[in-house]
Amino acid sequence: MQALDSRPIHRLRIAALGLGCLIALTSAAAAQEVTLKAAVFVPPSTTYGIPFKRFVDHVNETGKGVLQIRIVGGPEAVPADGQAQAVKTGVLDIASIPPAYYKSIMVEGDTQVLTDMTVAEQRKSGAYEALNKIAIEKMGSLYLTTYGVGVPFHLYITKDMPVKSIEDLKGLRFRGQPNYAAIFKKYGIAGANVAIPETYTALERGTVQGYGYPLWGINDFGWEKLTKTRIDPGFYNVIVNILMNKAKYDALTPAQKKVLDDAVVWFEADSLKSTAETTTAALDLQAKAGIQVVDFGPEFKKTAVELYWDDLKALSPEAVAKLRPLLTKN
To answer: What average pLDDT is seen over the chain?
Structure first.
């Protein structure tokens, strides 16, 4: 009897083995890629959401097959004042949020708004490391990076009135956040807690005659159409921190961490250029809207900053005393 030819069976075994290896390799590659869940305190398409989306897009481009970030949304997905807590508990991996939104957990975070130092200077002075240490202790979170540095806060007046000095603002009612409370009190301005979606109507009806807001973004809500005057100089400093759950970061592989770390280096260099461009565009937009500028001089800014340092020091004396020299230029 002629022996059966075993070559076809042998070939099938080799093919099956090869297919199995391919599936195993593909599965391993897929398993290596991690997707992080992120949220931002404003809609991603608005002025202060765009820089975060740029960071995420860079991570997703450079981290293909290794690390990705998925933005689940803005405050409609996770309320802004709950995003830091969501990162702390691991519901979110990352949040892009100003320290004012987690002040109840980490009051020391707001010291960052009082510096004129760049992020690079804050890293060099030890300020960033000190803030990061507090964030780990109180929120279980890391400070990955920061944007908005160099963008000041301003007072804007919507009432059609002559403004020659700070005394002219006495008795007016302004929409503002808690970080304006000290300066409002100092100059006799009544503060009003008005939600952003309701502010246009409040300004239009004269319920409030002005507002406090940074240089960027008043056009996100159409407020520039109602604004008559901007008070210079700006004071404070816009700070939006990109927080990450520390346990999640620690669980990443070295390759995955490198994607994030490299993106931070790129983002902080890129932000210097993009911040300058956005600031120029904001100034042009306000000028074209017919907003007049009244300059109250350097003492106005100095007073605002000192008042807020005093407020923060009263809330956390020891930590704020240590942070201030690290956040102050020599």
So the answer is: 91
**CATH 3.40.190.170 is right for the domain spanning 153-236+285-326:** yes
- The pLDDT of residue 3 is above 50: no
Query: According to the 3-state scheme, what is the secondary structure of the chain?
Result: CCCCCCHHHHHHHHHHHHHHHHHHHHHHHHHHCEEEEEEECCCCCCCCCHHHHHHHHHHHHHCCCCEEEEEEECCCCCCHHHHHHHHHHCCCCEEEECHHHHCCCCHHHHHHHHCCCCHHHHHHHCHHHHHHHHHHHHHCEEEEEEECCCCCEEEEECCCCCCCCHHHHCCCEEECCHHHHHHHHHCCCEEECCCHHHHHHHHHHCCCCEEEEECCCHHHCCHHHCCCEEEEEEECCCCEEEEEEHHHHHHCCHHHHHHHHHHHHHHHHHHHHHHHHHHHHHHHHHHHCCCEEEECCHHHHHHHHHHHHHHHHHHCHHHHHHHHHHCCCC
Q: In the predicted model, what is the mean pLDDT of residues 268-273?
A: 95
Q: Which residue has the higher pLDDT, 20 or 218?
A: 218
In CATH terms, the fold of domain 31-150+238-280 is D-Maltodextrin-Binding Protein; domain 2 (3.40.190)
Q: What is the pLDDT of residues 237-270, one digit of tens each?
A: 999 999 999 999 999 999 999 999 999 999 999 9
Could you read off the pLDDT of 295-306 as tens digits, one per residue? 999 999 999 999
